[in-house]
Structures are given as structure tokens and as C-alpha cells.
Amino acid sequence: MGTEGEGVRVVAGRYRLETRLGRGGMGVVWRATDELLGRQVAVKELPFDDTLSDEEARQRRERTLREARAVAQLRHPHIIVVHDVVEDDGRPYIVMELIDGGSLADRISARGPVDADEAARIGIGLLSALRTAHAAGVLHRDIKPANVLMEAGSDRVVLTDFGIAQVAGATTLTETGSFVGSPEYTAPERMSGARTGPESDLWSLGALLCTVLSGESPFRRDSLGGILHAVVFDEIRPPVQAEPLLPVVRGLLERDPERRLGAAQAEHMLRAFRDLGRTPQPSLYTPTQRNVPRPP
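^ thats the sequence. predicted structure below, dont judge the formating
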């Protein structure tokens, strides 16, 4: 059982929750202290919702545990580190490394868009992280600025919140007929209900690059229906600020996933831009060069 008092709650007899860092659809994240090891950590708590049926509550709990399992198997400097998974009073908590500095969305909101060199640096880090995740059979499925952390001091880019990840060999837990994710960053094949692979994460990264360069997603509209139409049908118009990285952005925002730019080549092109000041056009490559197996 957790303990409370003087505004402090301790879960699993070890993690003292201190300050709420953020809240999203998949839970509340707290700054906490690991009282056993004496270190600061981040703890993600699945909030209790008494409107859910027992089956829905079970699915939410298993989805949270799946996030921990998915991320715990990954080792990469640009992917959040999971330290522990505990249960307290029937509720799961994920214990992660604490990243001070806020999200990429916070940074854009406070300081505005970034220049092309910084966007390329962010993209390189995220592409490298996705290559590792995809090679392990893990699809993130919710790449967006709010799920990218920027470490203060080092400006390390860290991909987090694998709450709706799809893992090879695991049962899909998304409820039938429902949609999870962020529509402005969701690939058209997912919108259409088609089976998706690593390419869907790369579409999301293309939309993210447009956002960090201009301040908003190119698919932002006044309604959900408008967003869906923009993603699936409207002419794709990258912002003018994306011009220096246009070959990468257009390649990632290719509606046909079979023709979409692969992670390895996109990373190579962004590195070339940072080294040479210009972005090369995509070269011909075979599907095997993607190095990203499609989960079953």
C-alpha cells in the first residue's frame, strides 16, 4: 500500500512522489525520490478511472505494463531508460530516469521554432532511436513534440512515452473501433485502418520536423475531420521554413509507405546537411536497406 502524509505519497514502500511533472492520456508523471538508492527518478502513474469497466481497466493496466516492457528492452542514448515497474494497491507505476529540461513542445512554445541545423540535430537523434526500436520490433506510434524530452545543459534528445507502442508478438490492446494517438502526427495508413509498420513512425517524424521548424504541424485544422482529411487527401505543403531540409521532409511525408524514406537514409541525409550545408536528394535503395523488420 502507498503511504500519504504532509502532501507526500510513497509507493511500493520506496518511491516518494514529490512534484507532478506532467499529465497525458496515458498517466501522470511525477518527480520522485528512490529512497532505497537515494536518487531522483520520474514515476509514471496510471490514474484511477471509476467510469471504466473491469475489462477496460485491465486493458489500461496492461497497456502501461507493455510500455515498460517495450522500453526496458531498448538501450539507446536517445530513448528513455526504465529502471523499474512496481504495483501499489493494484495500480502499476513505471520508474524511469529523470530528464530535467522539459519537452520539445515546451521548448517550441516558450522559444519558438528552431533553425534547420537544430531541427536536423533533433531529427538525427530521433531517427537513431527509432532504428533501434524498430530493429527490436517496437513501434512507438505516437511521435510528437510532447513525447520528446530535451535535457537541460546537454540538450540531449530523448524519446519517451511508449504508452501505445506496438510490440512484435504481443496482443494489440487498443479497443476495437477506437483510435489512440495524435491525429496531426499520424500516418495516413493508420488513419485508414491499414496494417502499419515502422514507416508510420517515420511519417510522424516528418510532421514533427515541420512543427519544430515552423511552430505547428502542417496538418493542423479546426476540427478532427479536417485533420483526417488533410492527412489522407489534401495536398501536402511543408512550411517554407522546411526548405533547407525539404528532401527529407518530403521523403518522410510520402503517403505511400512503400515509397517513404527509410530511417537510415533520412539520418544520412540530415547528417550530410549538417556537414555540408545542403541536403542531398534521396538515392535509390532497396527495401532491405531500411533495416527495420515489420512486426507481425
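The radius of gyration is 19 Å.
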